[in-house]
Structures are given as C-alpha cells and as structure tokens.
UniProtKB/TrEMBL annotation:
Gene3D superfamilies: 2-enoyl-CoA Hydratase, Chain A, domain 1 (3.90.226.10). Keywords: Cytoplasm, Lyase. Decarboxylates ethylmalonyl-CoA, a potentially toxic metabolite, to form butyryl-CoA, suggesting it might be involved in metabolite proofreading. Acts preferentially on (S)-ethylmalonyl-CoA but also has some activity on the (R)-isomer. Also has methylmalonyl-CoA decarboxylase activity at lower level. It is an enzyme of class 4 (lyase). It comes from the Eukaryota. Belongs to the enoyl-CoA hydratase/isomerase family. The keyword Lyase applies. It catalyses: (2S)-ethylmalonyl-CoA + H(+) = butanoyl-CoA + CO2; (2R)-ethylmalonyl-CoA + H(+) = butanoyl-CoA + CO2; (S)-methylmalonyl-CoA + H(+) = propanoyl-CoA + CO2. Its EC number is 4.1.1.94. It is found in: Cytoplasm, Cytosol. This is Ethylmalonyl-CoA decarboxylase.
Length: 303
C-alpha cells in the first residue's frame, strides 16, 4: 500500500516531468509504469531460432528492421522477440532518424508465431504478451514515421506486428489477416487495442471475428493498408522507401520528430495501458487452451 509520503513523492516526480515538456509527459508516465521485463526476456531468449536485424542510414534518416526466419516465413521465436526489443532500443537513441521500415527476409513479412516456439511456450502466454506489448508500444511511439512492408502471408501475429507501425504498404501479391480466432486465441501482441484506435470498433470486430484474409484491394478499402505497390515493381523495399520519403521524410528532421512526438503524446493521454492489460489477460486465458491445441494439431493456420 502506498503511503501518503510515497504519493507525495510520486506526485512531485510527475509534476516535474510535466513541467519539462508537454510533448514527453505521457511517454514518461508510460516508462514510470513499465514492468520489470528482464526475467521474461531471459526466458524468451532460450527459445532460439531466427533473428531481427537493423540497418540505420544516417544520410537518408531511414532505418530498415528485418525479420529473418525465412525457412518458417519469418515467424517469430522468443529470441526474435528479444532481438526486436534490442533494435527498438537502438532506434530510441538514434537522433538522425526520420523513418523506419519493418520488413521480412525473402518476400514475407511474418506469418505469426513460430509453431515450434508456440508448442514449447504454451505455459508462457501472459509473460510473452507482456514483453511484446512493451516492445511494440515503444516501436509505435518512436519519433520516426514507421511503415510495415506487408509481403507474402502476413497472418495472425504478423498482421499484429503491422499495426505497430504508423502506416502499411502492401505488395500486390500479399495477403493479410487476423486469423487468431481460427487458432482458438485472442490477439497476443496488442492488435485489438491498436486496430480499434486505427479503424474504429465496428471494423476491428469485423476483422478480428471474421478471420478474413484480405487481398490488397480489400485491405486498402478497409483502411488497413495505405498504399499498394504497383504490380510492375522490381524492388518493393526501395518502392516503400520512395513512398516514405515522398510523403513524409522531405522535411527537417527535428521538426518531423517533434510533430510525431506531439501525436504520440496526444495518443498516450488516453489510457492505453488499461486496454493492453485487458487484452493480455484475455489472451492468456486462450493461450495453451484446448481450442488452440486442437488447431495446432490440425495445422489449421494456413488452411
């Protein structure tokens, strides 16, 4: 229980933070309330396989975050989750950055959770979700304009990852869908909260409960995707960079970053932590449950 003296100290800290900058106040409150994730990080790192790589170009101000587990369509392992958190940490310290592109190696963004990892971690759902919520919230709140390059079969957790970026650019041959309900699950990595804010309640319910797998035209019509790459394109990553530069990154770096921070501050003034907490608890009730286990046994994800 907090004492009156403790409350007074916390009030003083928050007052000082708010007086420093209205732009950073809400973000500072988020970090004050951030849980201790080190034990979860240590455990997740034991689930090996794949990697997440980061390239930062100071001349253009564009970074590329690449998921690499190509033999499994870049599905996420515990180690990859730790790698991604480390990459986000580097981006938080990168002062020259304007934009970020999240993509996958070999023409796929991400097909969700690596099923080998999933089967080994059926007892570890809430902890894994807590770690991913933290990483993806930090990614979304970066003072960079972020874009997910949606390629291949971006399903389940892969579709969730795409919502942790400000925008989504989609390959003409790609598919995207929130198929968690087919797997006996709710969303693991915060997509229900982010989708509701992005598209509104009705569309979020539709996409999450129908498990529809969308082609580019439908994804664009729903407002989930912001740009569909032309069919005649030799380099989809370069086209995404061009789209990012053309639309957002031609202006002064410091002003761009300040504007993004203003938008983040406005967004965080709503209580996202409560929504994510609810989402995490509901997911934990389905992870490792009989419906998910049955779906895993039937290898239903890609059917």
């Amino acid at each position: 229980m907090c004492t009156r003296a403790t409350n007074k100290v916390l009030h003083g800290v928050l007052k000082q933070l708010k007086s420093q900058s209205n732009v950073t106040f809400a973000r500072s409150v988020y970090y004050l309330n951030r849980p201790n994730l080190q034990p979860i990080r240590t455990q997740l790192a034991t689930f090996e396989g794949g990697s997440v790589e980061l390239e930062m170009d100071n001349s253009s101000g564009i970074a590329v975050l690449t998921l690499s587990n190509p033999r499994r369509l870049n599905s996420m392992t515990g180690k990859m989750m730790v790698d991604m958190a480390d990459c986000v940490g580097e981006l938080e310290l990168w002062k020259e950055g304007k934009g970020l592109i999240m993509c996958g190696e070999g023409g796929n963004l991400c097909s969700g959770g690596d099923l080998t990892f999933v089967r080994k971690a059926l007892h570890y759902g809430e902890e894994m979700a807590a770690y991913q919520h933290d990483t993806l919230t930090r990614l979304l709140n970066l003072p960079l304009i972020s874009v997910a390059l949606v390629q291949g079969h971006t399903l389940g957790g892969g579709a969730e990852l795409s919502t942790a970026c400000d925008y989504r650019v989609m390959s003409p041959s790609a598919k995207i869908g929130f198929v968690q309900i087919k797997m006996g699950l709710t969303t693991a990595w915060g997509a229900a909260t982010r989708l509701t804010r992005l598209l509104g309640r009705r569309k979020a319910i539709d996409l999450l409960c129908s498990a529809r797998i969308l082609l580019p035209s439908a994804a664009f019509h729903e407002g989930l995707v912001d740009y569909v790459i032309p069919r005649i394109c030799d380099d989809e990553l370069q086209e995404t960079k061009n789209w990012l530069m053309r639309n957002f990154c031609n202006y002064d770096t410091s002003i761009m970053r300040a504007i993004k921070s203003l938008v983040v501050n406005a967004d965080l003034s709503m209580d996202m932590s409560v929504a994510l907490d609810n989402e995490r608890k509901l997911f934990a009730q389905t992870w490792g449950g009989p419906v998910q286990r049955k779906a895993l046994d039937a290898n239903i994800k890609h059917k």
